[in-house]
Amino acid sequence: MGFGVYIIYFLILMAVPIWAQSRVKKAYAKYSEVANSTGLTGAQVARRILDENGLYNIDIQEVGGTLSDHYDPRGKVVRLSSGIYHGDSIAGTAVAAHEVGHAIQDANDYSPLRIRHAMVPVANIGSNFSYILILAGFFLHMANLTLIGVIFFAAAVLFQLVTLPVEFNASSRALDQIVNLGIVQNNEEKRARKVLNAAALTYVAAALVAVMELLRFVLMFVGINNDD
């Protein structure tokens, strides 16, 4: 690649995640100001969906931070940030239901979720060491070292790709639950969907960036091989 192409490439790498994050922050901020019609807090929404699905053993805990919400499959705990845990907004309802969607996936032995959990150790190794191996191989002109780094990075990319169906499915389950249980009504479903779609964009952006980086590393490996 020429220098100009590299500049454009790195600008795209930076712009895509920033754009996705701005979308989710905008949607979250907007619908955090809109209360749901039932007056249920995020914690109450999560508890109701869990109980309706027979998941009485799943605990709900409050955690600090903003949008730090997640489901812990090992501890069987749905953790909600303070604003969502105590708030009754449309945004909070959507996020809480999404995290419970992961708990339902776990209970139903959803295959992509199982695959993602199994890939975590390899993905962590790939994320932490692949860059070091690839750059070392590039500067030392050691194609085999670069190839090992590319393989590790490919595992991290695969993890990102497997994450997509897991997140989209959790959002789909969340919408079905809050609509069927009457937690959202009328145009509230549309607003909740906007929050979930915006959040999904962050995962799409991350996967896109990861794939682009993998392609660049593959080209680096090919270049080293051609030089040998």
TrEMBL record:
Top-level lineage group: Bacteria
Cross-referenced InterPro entries: Zn_peptidase_2 (IPR007395)
Keyword Membrane (UniProt): yes
Bilayer-crossing regions: 6-22, 118-139, 145-164, 200-224
Keyword tags: Membrane, Transmembrane, Transmembrane helix
Protein name: Zn-dependent protease
UniProt source species: Scopulibacillus darangshiensis
